[in-house]
Write a structure and sequence with these properties.
Order of helices and strands: HEHHEHHHHEEHEEEHHHHHHHH
Mean pLDDT: 86
Number of helices: 16
CATH architecture of the largest domain: Alpha-Beta Complex
Helix content: 40-55%
Distance between the termini: 63 Å
Structural class: alpha+beta
Strand content: 5-15%
Shape: globular
Strand order of the largest sheet: 3-4-7-5-6
Number of strands: 7
Radius of gyration: 21 Å
Largest sheet: 5 strands, mixed
């Protein structure tokens, strides 16, 4: 009979987050996967392998052997920004209010982390967000998973509200760890230990607070839909460094990663990345420009967004800079391009 850990699954992207947080180099990656039976390809950008709960648990145990810092779970949790969860994160960030965002996380997170479950209960005074890890794990690993889950929740709430929630508190069902004094460096609300449930408790009045993460949620969703459409056109198992970089640029919010971030995601130095791209007749800046140009053209052809809105979605805080870049890419102004495309 299969164990409960074999029944649950999790996408390989979270193992890549662990490898990046540990700052592993290519030659060190096998140690992270030891005992899992997984190939090194699961740690490459774009891999879509589904891991069992047991395999993910073994990776966490290997990570603790590589880095024995008691703060590892908290440090990993800081990496779990909403964008780390793919379309689910974007859906949550595009929700009209906090409660709807939390409901999106509750309903769709199990599609990426089957052993993670979020319960929501809205009463007159409190909105309780209960965290459950349905995986048979030793106490230390279970605590790490709950720390990560709680920080994921904190990141989403703060992204929607635009500020740490006043009057909130975290409660954990495990005893206070030896490093409890460090919790204040990670959590932006009071923390209680040895409670009945692990949960984030929010004042009920915050439930219908409007989303502050963007002025135009429809435009944000449109931007992410386009990125995922283009991303689907890149081979997921390509051995090309160029394709891997392109996938990374399309899978992250525009402007959210620089060349050093991309190199780290591939577990190589910036110099090694540049050398591999050069061998393929490419380069980071060239690829970034190609991606920006492609996104700009698609937005102007297939949407009703204004030029200033397109500039903002592509990370240009000054629309004039976007217009100059667009003219460099296409030899014409954005409005001229849109007019020609409509004929």
């Amino acid at each position: 009979m299969a164990s409960r850990g074999e029944q649950f699954f999790i996408t390989s992207s979270y193992s890549r987050i662990i490898a990046r947080e540990l700052r592993l180099h290519e030659r060190e990656l096998p140690a992270l996967l030891r005992g899992t039976g997984l190939p090194l390809s699961v740690l490459q950008p774009g891999d879509q392998t589904v891991l069992s709960g047991n395999q993910q648990l073994r990776i966490i145990q290997n990570a603790r052997a590589i880095n024995d810092s008691p703060l590892l779970g908290l440090q990993l949790g800081l990496q779990l920004q909403p964008s780390a969860h793919g379309p689910i994160g974007y859906l949550a960030l595009s929700s009209p209010d906090l409660l709807t965002a939390l409901q999106a996380l509750r309903d769709f997170l199990p599609l990426r982390i089957a052993f993670a479950q979020l319960g929501l209960e809205l009463k007159r005074d409190w909105l309780k967000c209960t965290l459950q890890v349905r995986l048979d794990a030793p106490a230390a690993e279970r605590r790490m998973l709950l720390e990560c889950f709680a920080l994921l929740l904190q990141a989403l709430v703060q992204s929607v509200l635009g500020t740490p929630p006043e009057g909130a508190r975290f409660e954990f069902a495990f005893p206070a760890p030896d490093y409890r004094s460090s919790y204040g460096d990670f959590f932006h609300a009071p923390v209680r230990f040895s409670q009945t449930h692990s949960q984030l408790v929010l004042p009920a009045g915050l439930a219908y607070t409007a989303n502050a993460s963007g002025d135009d949620p429809d435009a944000y969703r449109l931007a992410q839909d386009l990125c995922h459409k283009l991303l689907a056109e890149v081979p997921s198992q390509s051995l090309s460094t160029t394709d891997q970089v392109r996938r990374l640029l399309l899978s992250r919010p525009t402007g959210a990663a620089n060349e050093e971030d991309i190199a780290r995601a591939l577990f190589v130095s910036k110099r090694t990345l540049a050398r591999r791209l050069a061998r393929e007749g490419s380069g980071y800046r060239q690829l970034r420009e190609q991606v920006l140009a492609e996104l700009a053209a698609e937005h102007l052809r297939d949407s009703r967004l204004g030029v200033d809105s397109v500039a903002e979605l592509l990370g240009y805080h000054d629309a004039a800079n976007f217009r100059r870049a667009f003219h460099r890419w296409f030899g014409m102004a954005p409005r001229e391009f849109r007019l020609a495309a409509s004929k």
